[in-house]
Every structure is written in structure tokens, then in C-alpha cells.
Amino acid sequence: MFNLGLDLYYDTEARNKTSAAPDLPFNPFKALIAPRPIGWISTLTPEGNVNLAPYSYFQAVADNPDIVIFSATPGLTTKDGAVSFTDERKHSESNAISSGEFVCNLVTHELAEVMNMTSAHLPRDTDEAAHAGIQMIPSTRVKPPRVAASPAAIECVVVDTHTIRHRGGDHSFQMVFGEVVGIHINDQFITDGRVDTTAMRILTRMGYDEYAVLTESFRMTRPDNDPILDGRLKV
Ligand SMILES: Cc1cc2nc3c(=O)[nH]c(=O)nc-3n(C[C@H](O)[C@H](O)[C@H](O)COP(=O)(O)O)c2cc1C
User: Fold this and answer.
1) What's the CATH number for 14-234?
2) Can you give the residue ranges of every domain in the chain?
């Protein structure tokens, strides 16, 4: 059945022109590509200081080998009401690229507020984990430590970077690709050899200031293969 209700068309190019302001006060994009997983990225500065910050432009993009990405915006500045990018780079991005390693810690509902604290813009040599009172513990294969209270931590080695382009040139968003070399999982979330994802109450990002908690799941196998058997065959 077709929905013949009124269709709001948000003109994404008009939003930067004051003469043609779109109908919505805020860009709806992130409210629609939702929920997005949050990669809580721990890295080390060249001096060995811990850096911890959340990234919701974060995703799994391949498996076997397993690859994740996070994408960092450059600094932003405003002049005469217009927003533009600066040359400043996010610390997680520069640390991951210079050291070649990062850890993606999973964020739970219970960790929401401390995760949010680590998104504060702090000086490069400030340890955001210590700032937020978060206990870090050693990783196994990589040097950046992991969040002790996180139900899972994914250790990654940087294998690629990509500067995102748009029709007008470079967007200056930098994607960092990490190959997963090991995963720590709190074994209270493992049942019959499977990770109980919903039991972790993973926090996800939506639009504006909204978050969602992953609490419900159901099972469905594909018509032409069994994903569990498929996973075993690929090992
Ligand atoms: C839930 C959440 C998700 C975020 N996702 C991103 C993101 O995907 N990319 C980005 O550049 N900044 C993102 N930020 C903002 C960064 O966390 C923030 O700029 C932080 O200060 C970066 O720290 P760093 O410079 O130590 O890497 C996010 C913030 C929050 C709270």
C-alpha cells in the first residue's frame, strides 16, 4: 500500500544557503542512519599517553580478516556564522595512524555517561580515561590499553586510511581501517559458545542527542546457507 501522506523533502544542498533554508531546523541524516554502533577508541600518543574517545562513524566493513573503520572529522570553526573546517586533526586519528594500533571498546548503557565525558575536547597529552575515572587494563596484541568495564574490546592494527571525497573536493573526513587481531569478551556474556549481544545492553547512537540500547533480537537463517556453518568453513 502506498503512503500518500505529505512528503517532506529535505534539500541537503540548500541548508548551507541562508536564502533557501530547509524545512527542518536540524539535519535529519543521522536520525535516519540509526542506530550506529559506537567505537570507543583507545590509542596511545607517541609519548605513551592514553587517549580514549567515542566514534559513531564506526563500523565493521569486512570479515576474514575482520576489518573495522572509524571516521574522524577535522576541527571546526565558525566565522560570521559560517562553519568551516580547520587543519586540526582528532587525536584518535593521528595516534592510530602514527602508532599503527587502536582498540575499539564496546559501550554499554551503564557506561554512557563516562563515554560521553571522553568526548570532551581535551589537550593532546591529557589522558581522557583518567579524566573520566575509567580504569584501563592491558591489551594482548597491541599497546593501547582497553577499558576494563567494557564487555568486549577489539584489538586492531591499522591497515589503511582513506580521505573521503565529495562532489566539491575533499571532505577532510579521514577513515582509519583496522584489522582485528584479537578480541577480549567478558565471559559472562557467552552462552553455549555464542556471544549474547543483547545481554550486554550495548549503547548505540541515533540523531541529535539521542541514543538507543540494544535489548531485543531474534534468529533467522539465510535460505541458502547456515551462517554458523559458513563461519566455521571460512576459518
Ligand atoms: C557518541 C559520540 C559519537 C561520536 N562520533 C564521532 C565520529 O564518528 N567522528 C568524530 O570525528 N567525532 C565523533 N565524536 C566526537 C569525538 O568523540 C570528540 O571530538 C572527541 O573529543 C575526539 O577525541 P580525540 O581528539 O581524542 O580523538 C563523537 C562523540 C560522541 C559523544
Assistant:
1) 2.30.110.10
2) 14-234
Report long-range pairs for 143-148 (Cβ below 8 Å, ≥24 apart).
143/44, 143/99, 143/101, 144/42, 144/43, 144/44, 144/50, 144/99, 144/101, 144/102, 144/103, 145/42, 145/50, 145/103, 146/42, 146/103, 146/105, 146/184, 147/40, 147/42, 147/52, 147/105, 147/111
Whether residue 178 has its Cβ less than 6 Å from ligand 1: no
pLDDT per position as a tens digit, 99-147: 999 999 999 999 999 999 999 988 888 898 999 999 999 999 999 999 9
Ligand 1 mutation target, pool 90, 128, 202, most atoms within 8 A of CB: 90
For the Cβ of 40 lying below 6 angstroms from any atom of ligand 1, the answer is: no
* Mutation test residue for ligand 1: of 45, 56, 118, the one with most atoms within 8 Å of CB: 56
pTM: 0.92
